[in-house]
Amino acid sequence: MRKLTAVLGIVACSCASTREEMTEARHQPCEDVLTRYLRISADADYASYPKGVRIAYETTVASCYLDRRRPEKAVALARSWGDEQRAETLRVEARADAQLDKKADCRAALERYVKEPDADPYFFTEEPEFRNYAAEDWYIGTAIDAWSRTKMPAMERYAARLLHLGGANLLSLEVAAADPHRRTGEWALWLGAVRESRLDRASGQTYLSAVGLDVKQVAHVDRKVASVKYEGTWSGGIKGTPTYDETESYQEVFVPNGRSFIVKYPKVSEKLVGMKTILALGHYAGREGEEGIPVLSALLVMERKAEEHAEHDP
Fold this sequence. Notes:
alpha+beta
């Protein structure tokens, strides 16, 4: 009986140790993760572990396979997870297809991925496999679909991160206005106050004429007494020492910069006509008119409101 108890104790200890290895895998170097996976997955008890524990562990293993440029193994593992892990499977498939230079398959996987409820917009900005696609219209459009769920972070930061992945930068309105010989096709993100809008149903486009806006941050400090500590003084009086709560808030202010620009959106959109302040993302399309006004061929036009955020300092 004592021998049986000892054996059961060893088995329980072994299982606990294996579970701990699986849990800690995400913090370990990929070389160690893949070496241990061969041993752990061959264990007779591996299939009996809770499915959630196994899949969480195998997600790390699949990521390591991809980091070590072994996409086929990553995909084979991911496709064993079932429909409830479809988003994770699509992430693996998209990265693997990109590594294998299967652009059409990668695009299809990403377009399916953004339809998942928990699609992460940062997935499009962080994975090096997508570097070659990061400045292409289809990739930017798919990433924006993921971003539009939460609209976080701000589009200005998100677009900059997307293009940075592909080694590109956003063309500013200031530079476009100052350079009459600027080549077309560069990505740009311009903020402006709409002065005139027009729907052209014949060409299927919406035209917006705007004046550029710069964003300034104005700080305000709200200081309130949180408590007062009273102490006696040598003269027999009472002295009160207050403690303050401070909230520092930052309010965006839009300041016209005098630089006009034109936005051409490739659809008839009555919604855009009603916008007052716009943020437009698209390709620089040269200049128009005698004044040489910069033109943006837009992939996205959204209304932009001044934001405010507060920082509490007790």
